[in-house]
Amino acid sequence: xxxxxxxxxxxxxxxxxxxxxxxxxxxxxxxIDDISADLFLSPHTVRTHIKNILRKMGARTRAHxxxxxxxxxxxxxxxxxxx
Length: 83
Description:
Helices cover about 55% and strands about 5% of the residues. By secondary structure, it is mostly helical. It has a two-stranded antiparallel sheet. Strand 1 and strand 2 form a beta hairpin. The chain is globular and about 30 Å long.
């Protein structure tokens, strides 16, 4: 886990470091409850982060957001266990 607060830029907005952490957890296939426990957040807060990620990225689904993030270099495929 990193504690950097530098936002990652995306064409539709800026994802906070925490939103990027949530997005990486989604890419690993983790559930809201898993993400909540891993990042010490309430499930409601995780849902709010997901809602904000989708809005900022213009994605329709979580899978769409992950695909967009990987293709645009916001998520490193190797960090989330993808080839």
